[in-house]
Amino acid sequence: MSKIYVGVGGWVFEPWRGSFYPKDLPQKRELEYAGRKFTAIEINGTYYGSQKPESFARWHDETPEDFIFALKGPRFATNRRILAEAGGSIEKFLQSGIARLKRKLGPINWQFMATKKFEPEDFESFLDLLPKQHDGVTLRHAVDVRHPSFACEAFVLLCRKHNVAIVTAGDSEFPLIADVTADFVYARIMGTVEQEKLGYSKAALNKWAARAKDWSAGRAPKDFKLLAKPATAKPRDVFVFVISGAKEKNPAAAQALIAAL
Predict the structure, then answer these.
(1) Which CATH class is domain 4-260?
(2) Three-class SS state of 165
(3) How many CB atoms lie within 10 A of CB 53?
C-alpha cells in the first residue's frame, strides 16, 4: 500500500523554539519532538557537507519506527559543468554512513542550481551514476531542477526511463513539473506566508491534500498541466515537504496538511 509522508526541511531553527517547540524543551530533544509531529523530514545539511555515520545512526534511533528521512545529495555532485564527472562525489556521499538510517532512508534529492540547463546526454550520464542499492538499503532518487529548459517532454521521459522522480516545486518561482516519473512522488511546497496562521489558507492546504491523495492513488491531479503522457496508474508513496516561504510557519502548515489528509 502507498503512504503519504509530510514534513519540513530540517529541525534546527531558532524561531521554532517557543512557537513550535515547547520553550523548556532541551535542544538535543528537538528531533525526537519533531518526529512525533511529522512523518518525514528533509535533511539539508548533507547538501553542504558530509555527516558522520554516528549522526545517521542517532537520527534513526531518535525517531519513530515508521519515520522517513529524505536527504539532500551533496552540492559537489550537482554544481558542476560536466555532470558525468560526479561519480566520486556521489560515492563519497554514499559511503558517509547514510545506510545507518536503514529503512528510514527515504528519497535522495539531487538539487541543481537555477543556472544549470538541460543537456540530455550529460544529464543522462548523471542518472546512470545513481545506484539502486547501497549496503543492502534500497535507494530512491529525485532531481530538483530549476532552469526553464527542463520543462519539456524529453526530460520527463528521460527521468521516467531511469525511475527517478522530478521534484514538483509548488508555489515557487521555479518551473513546476508535475509529471510522475518514478514509483514515488516528491513535492516541495514553498508558499507559506506570515499573515496566515497556518502558513497556508485552509483552502490551499486542502488542495495540496487532494493532490497528494491523487498521486498516492495513481492519479494525476487535474489542476496540473503535464508535459508528457500520464504515467502508469498505480499506487505510489508520496513525500510532501513544506520548505522555504515563511519558514517560521512551516511546522504549522505541515501539521495542518497531515490533519487535512
Answers:
(1) alpha beta
(2) strand
(3) 14
